[in-house]
Amino acid sequence: MCIRDRVATIVLKTAAWKLTGSVGLLSDAMESGVNLVAAIGAFWALTLAAKPADRSHHYGHFKAEYFSSGLESVLIVVAALAIISAAVGRLQQPQPLEQLGIGLALSLLATALNALVAWILLKASRRFHSITLRADAHHLFTDVWTSFGVVLGIGLVKVTGLTILDPLIAIAVALNIVVTGWKLLHETASGLLDRSLPEDEQAQLEALLASHETEDIRFHALRTRVAGSRRFVAFHVLVPGRWTVQAGHDLCDELEREIAGALTRTHVLTHLEPIEDPKAWDDQGF
User: Fold this and answer.
1) What are residue 267's phi and psi, to 5 degrees?
2) Global pTM value
3) DSSP 183-221
4) Which residues partner with 238 through β-bridges?
5) Exposed, middle or buried by CB within 10 Å (0-12, 13-18, 19+), for 277?
6) Which of 128, 280, 282, 284 pairs with 180 at a CA distance of 20 to 30 A?
7) What is the pLDDT of residues 213-260, one digit of tens each?
């Protein structure tokens, strides 16, 4: 999870704040501190999510990823409140900024390091379909743009001499990361509430099943959910009662293989029923 890179970033940004006394750079350093705690939480969550299913967790531990993203969203809001508090204090008692050249150089170096780590994490999140890695990558990219905004703002302070811009920049940073935290919290809540597959994947699944439908083969009670990097799909397969168990099993096996091939990291559960039985049509899904 690039913990050493996070520590290096915090050291650079903290040094920039200490040298300049800028509350804007302090806000940037605090957000990086949140990133470090989030990275540690993500490492724990991914380690737990990778554990296989056991007697107490038949469906695995994939939802552990949501604990990490939930923790990160809460930390973001806490950091934002601390930043606003420091910025309001500086608005009431303005202070001149010092050694801005060195401070801004250190901040830009930290920003470049963050951008590299965010790019690596985003590629990994797409490869492993991980909400934890994706959340961490997007948070880091937010940090990168925040840092650029802070550097530009502090540069304006140096050019214009308007020290009031410094706390105003810090407040803008705080409001920006609150929005990020809210989006992340919403995604976490959706995952914990067993949200269905995304619309495009749901449509792909429905199209695949429709391609197998005939007069003798029907499907209903389709249910899907996402748990971390895993997908779960369940549905009923209705076939003529005269079919042998082997024929029904072969059809279900074929469907499960096709769905698992089309939607990676998907666990498929089918339930075979006689198409002539009225009771088989009672459960339509919702």
Assistant:
1) -100, 125
2) 0.62
3) HHHHHHHHHHTTPPPPHHHHHHHHHHHHTT--SS-EEEE
4) 218, 273
5) exposed
6) 128
7) 999 999 999 999 888 778 899 999 999 999 999 999 999 999 999 999
